[in-house]
Amino acid sequence: RVWYFFVREESAWREHADVILEPDMRLFDLFDFGSAKEIIEAGEKEAKSKMHKIKQVIQRRFFFRPEIYR
Predict the structure, then answer these.
(1) What span, in angstroms and rounded, lies between the C-alpha atoms of 54 and 66?
(2) From the centroid of its chain, how far is CA 15?
(3) CA 65 to chain centre
(4) C-alpha span between 51 and 48 (Å, rounded)
């Protein structure tokens, strides 16, 4: 029942998201706190793989001035 709630709620926000990061978390348990470094690295890897899309969204939403971010 709880799982159904999360799945149902997930579809509502996915429709409005510009970019969705979905790192491969199959190797980790919900309470796998000892693997924090590896979990963070998985998230960073996913973010880097979507960086082009992330930059497009930032550029579209803001008047992007690259000189500010150098």
Answers:
(1) 14
(2) 14
(3) 24
(4) 5
Contact 46, 23 (CB under 8 A): yes
pLDDT tens-digit series, residues 7-39: 556 677 778 889 999 899 888 888 888 999 999
Alpha-carbon distances, residue 59 vs 3, 32, 45, 49, 63 (angstroms): 36, 36, 22, 17, 6
Q: Does this model's pTM top 0.85?
A: no
Site of tokens 């970019």: 19
Helices (H) and strands (E) counted in the chain, each on its own, are 3, 0
